[in-house]
Amino acid sequence: MGAVCSRKRSQLVHEDDSFQTSSRFSKTSSLKWLLLTLPRSNSDVSRKGQGKGPGRCPSLMELCVAKACEDINKYSSFSVLPRDLSQQIFNELVASNRLTETLLETFRDCALQDIDLGEYPGVNDAWMEVVASQRHSLLSVDISCSEITDSGLYLLRDCPNMQSLACNYCDMISEHGLGILSGLSNLTSLSFKRSDGITAEAMEAFANLVNLVNLDLERCLKIHGGLVHLKGLRNLESLNMRYCNNIADSDIKYLSDLTNLKELQLACCRITDLGVSYLRGLSKLTQLNLEGCPVTAACLEAISGLASLVVLNLSRCGIYGEGCENFQGLKKLKVLNLGFNNITDDCLAHLKELINLESLNLDSCKVGDEGLLHLKGLMLLKSLELSDTEVGSSGLQHLSGLRNLESINLSFTLVTDTGMKKISALNSLKSVNLDNRQITDVGLAALTSLTGLTHLDLFGARITDYGTSCFRFFKNLESLEVCGGLITDAGVKNIKDLKALKQLNLSQNVNLTDRTLELISGLTALVSLNVSNTRVSNAGLRHLKDLQNLRSLSLDSCRVTTSEVKKLQATVLPNLISVRPE
Amino acid sequence: MLRKGEAPGHQTPPHLHKDDGDDDDDAPSGFVKLISAEGFEFVVDKKAAMVSNTLRNMLTSPGGFSETREGEVRFPEISTPILEKICQYFYWSLHYSSGKETSEFQIEPEITLELMMAANYLDT
Question: What Pfam families would the database entry show (chain A) (predicted)?
Answer without folding.
Answer: LRR_14, LRR_6
